[in-house]
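Student: I would love a firmer grasp of how sequence relates to backbone shape in proteins. I am handing you a single protein, as its sequence and its fold in token form. I am told such tokens are a discrete way to write the fold. I hope you can help me see how the letters and the tokens relate. Take your time, and here it is.
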Amino acid sequence: MRVLITGGSGFIGQRLCRVLVETGHRVLVVSRDPERARQRLPKQVDIRTSALDFVDSAPTALVNLAGEPIAEKRWTDSHKEKLLDSRINATRELVMLCEQLAQTGTPPKVMVSGSAMGFYGDQGGGGEAPEVTEETLPNDEFVHRMCLRWEQAAEGVTEYGVRLAVVRTGLVLDKDGGMLKRMLPPFKMGLGGRLGSGEQFMPWIHREDMVQIIIWLLGRDDLSGAFNACAPNPVMNAEFTRRLGEHLHRPTLLAMPERVLQTMLGELSRLLLTGARMVPQRLEQEGFPFRYRTLDEALEALL
């Protein structure tokens, strides 16, 4: 395959690029900072500043992972607009690429496009919270509306005969990036603890499984639509905290009160204090072979 990736120098994209290169595929990456991307990616990767620069390369597959990190700054109105625009603009550019390639008779066969567990909004916590599948109705809030518009923008590729699969991604775990990288320093010092009540669910997935889901969907010509990209066994924040502490052999007694997080982070605190008991119903039904099905298996491999 000739795979064009937006967000290729990000946490998921870097690993995806390496696996694709190692398995013999040609990888094309769109980056606003090509020099920085070249430092992070294999030398075989072709890096350009716009998806439209790859018309001559006629990519056969697209992977759309671009977007400003959602948890690094307070959600002011201007930052919310930036979060949304970074996703919508990159996606629309891919739609334009598909239009141009369709005119030459060589549109891509498939696009795997990013979304997030935030599509569902807050779905409640605690042991009685219902499982959240791809059919669950969302709770209307900012993260849902952002993900919805992101997914709607991606639907434009289907007008040109491109099969579209959308991955609603959970919390991606690996020790050299993402949420776990930020959590490890305080937890290693014995300063970790639950957030708020600890009853909010944290759908998680090991980065290796996340990468393999994308590649698997690229190759499954019979699959389209939305897929929950998370491990089959989501856990509540209190359990995640306890198990991480056990694997590090550290106490996890210092809980962070909900009110403190709300004061520190404003609306952004909802990412930490709410959640959804999201499960990968469609991936399970279609037979995706998860390597890390439980949190203990993932933490054992990572730590």
Summary: The mean pLDDT is 96. DSSP finds eleven helices and 13 strands in the chain. Residues 24 and 92 are 28 Å apart (CA to CA).
